[in-house]
Predict the 3D structure of the following.
Amino acid sequence: MNISIIKEYNENGFLLHVAEFPGAYTRGKVFPEAVAKIPTEVRRYELWCGLEPDTTFCMKFVEEKKSALNVSDADSDVLFESEREPLTREEYEALKALCLRSADDFLTLYSAVSDKSKVLREPRDTFYGKCPSTADEIYAHAAGICGYYFGEIGVDAGNAGDIAESRKAAFEALEKTPDFLENKIFVGKDGEEWTLRKICRRFVWHDRIHAKSLYRLVTAAEGADALPDPFCFGKAAFEYNMTTFI
């Protein structure tokens, strides 16, 4: 299996994206730390999608961007070269299904938390404000980006309903837009480039960041059996037979 890696970095850290698995990512304060996490991230993503693992793979770094953002804290604005290409209907339906599945799984995880207002960690400042410290706050943050993401590509979509309902409604609004499969490039409010392909990847990426945080915080406090594990975050690391870097 060939794995294409996009690297966002600066002097404070690294954020690596796996192009073949939209939303898969690793972070690290130093480059080797972020690279070392890739096999486990890929394996957990495969399990989440119900894919059989390929026990050998080759990692190829295909793009990089030196960023002014706090990439070690998962701030990102990169647009992959592959995300500039038009979509086929089949590609779109697959990406939409992935985004909707991710929202459903996030809702499953959040709904199982017994005390949603319990403080799980000390609040700290991040690039988007105070870091959410309760299950309610983590969920509200994850659910609240739907209107923002779609708004960046000119689609009027709000955040009504739960995370799954609002995302489904947003895709329905998108599909009323003429020529949405052209995957046009939009420049957002902060000068960031956006396409439909990118927001699909960003939905899954954003869900994974905050679902992983919620899962780890709750199970650390209440035990491994406290929550279901729809994203497979609790699965053991998978040992690949060979990893090659190009």
Observations:
- The first helix runs from residue 31 to 36.
- The longest strand covers residues 56-66.
- The CA atoms of residues 27 and 176 lie 37 Å apart.
- The mean pLDDT is 91.
